[in-house]
Amino acid sequence: MKIGIDIGGSHIATGLVDKNGNLISKESRDINISNISDEKRVEDLILEIIENEITILLEKEDLNVGDISKIGIAVPGSPKGNCIRNLVNLHIKEFDLGTKLKEKYKVNVKIKNDGKCAGLAEKLYGSLRKYDDCVFLCIGTGVGSAVFLEGELLEPEQNPGFEFGHMVIDKEGRKCNCGKNGCFETYASMKRFKLEAISRLKMSENTVAEEVQKYIRENINKKDVREFVDEYLTNVSIGLANIINIFEPEAISFGGSFSYYCDIFLPILQEKIEKLKFNKDTKTDLITAKLRNDAGIIGATEI
């Protein structure tokens, strides 16, 4: 049995995955660092959550540590070796998480960028199986990504690369956690979408993501809601058109919390992209990720 760990910008999910890529059991917990300023304390919190989740999973399935054959970790930023690095939303510069888990559980530990892990899962088991040239975008707290050409994951030598979330779409735009202005994810992330929906549509500050989605769905034909959604998708379409113009993908699959809006968003995006893409004869399917929030866990066990 393999352990897959998906560290997001605001949560950690850990799962047991079998040799066929099936998720057997999963645990998830939010990460709240709003009152933590010390990087070491954030690192300790992450390690504590992971160890607790593994313990719960093993007990739930009546397994022991010796039944774990591998641990794979999907993480934002630019992981290298055993280290997670540049987690801007968690304010971590570098943390040797892999070594700590390897010492505790005595198994091989692999770490890869979360967008790449989720993309691998969708390519092997999900929405992208029938495509050779394709892109996976995980739009949630940030924007993760994976690019496949001729069926192979593109992997630069130096860093994970393909940080579409940090391509600049407005040089005078919003400040990003990475330090630049106008990054794609400052306009496209679902975290930003939720906060702006609450503000623009005059919802309660305590409104949770599920309630925002319900409100958008029930009121999509109202002028203020329709205009808000259209403005958001206009910004998203700029980033998508850039990706299409560069990679000419047969398909783009959308994961993360964005995927729960796909039935509303994708038809509008398709129309907007048609006006922005360079090669008008390029056909790119916009599709919903099949594995949703489990893709990172499953993909982490495949690295």
By CATH reckoning, the class of the largest domain would read: Alpha Beta
Secondary structure class reads alpha/beta
Radius of gyration: 19 Å
How large is the count of helical segments?
A: 9
What order do the helices and strands follow?
A: EEEHEEEHEHEEEHHHHEHEH
What CATH architecture label of the largest domain applies?
Answer: 2-Layer Sandwich
Parts with pLDDT < 50 across at least 5 consecutive residues: none
Q: Which shape, going by the Cα principal axes? A: globular
Mean pLDDT, nearest integer?
A: 93
Q: Quick one: how many beta strands?
A: 12
Instruction: Give the amount of beta strand, in percent.
Output: 15-25%
Helix content: 25-40%
Spatial gap, N to C terminus:
15 Å
CATH homologous superfamily of the largest domain, by name?
ATPase, nucleotide binding domain
Largest sheet, strands/sense/barrel: 5 strands, mixed
Looking at the structure, the CATH topology of the largest domain is Nucleotidyltransferase, domain 5
Instruction: Count structural domains.
Output: 2
- The main sheet orders its strands as 3-2-1-4-7
